[in-house]
Structure to design on (112 residues):
């Protein structure tokens, strides 16, 4: 079953299709960039304008590894600009799928 694309944008990175969108977070005051692969193996959430640039991996795969335990947070090795663009979505997606340098962080270590 594929993901809904209503009011969401599609992007192709490499040979894979993704859907991305920005939405308000129900649990905080932040907007969140969401990136989801068509097969839902990669699910990323990136809170915007938090002061610390990080991504939350909610899917089954992250940086070429199977993830077996819930949500995990990782510092981004680059800054998030003020505007979310397809280029930024591609940059995050490439980093999350092809790199192996992710630095995990705990929720308490993120300055929210």
């Amino acid at each position: 079953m594929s993901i809904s694309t209503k009011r969401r944008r599609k992007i192709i990175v490499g040979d894979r299709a993704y859907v991305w969108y920005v939405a308000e977070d129900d649990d905080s005051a932040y907007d969140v960039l969401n990136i989801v692969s068509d097969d839902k193996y990669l699910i990323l959430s990136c809170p915007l304008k938090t002061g610390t640039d990080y991504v939350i991996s909610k899917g089954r795969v992250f940086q070429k590894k199977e993830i077996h335990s819930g949500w995990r947070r990782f510092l981004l090795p680059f800054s998030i600009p003020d505007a979310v663009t397809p280029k930024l979505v591609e940059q995050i997606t490439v980093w999350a799928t092809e790199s192996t340098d992710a630095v995990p962080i705990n929720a308490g270590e993120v300055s929210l």
Q: What stands out?
A: The radius of gyration is 13 Å. The first strand starts at residue 9 and ends at 13. The CA atoms of residues 64 and 97 lie 6 Å apart.
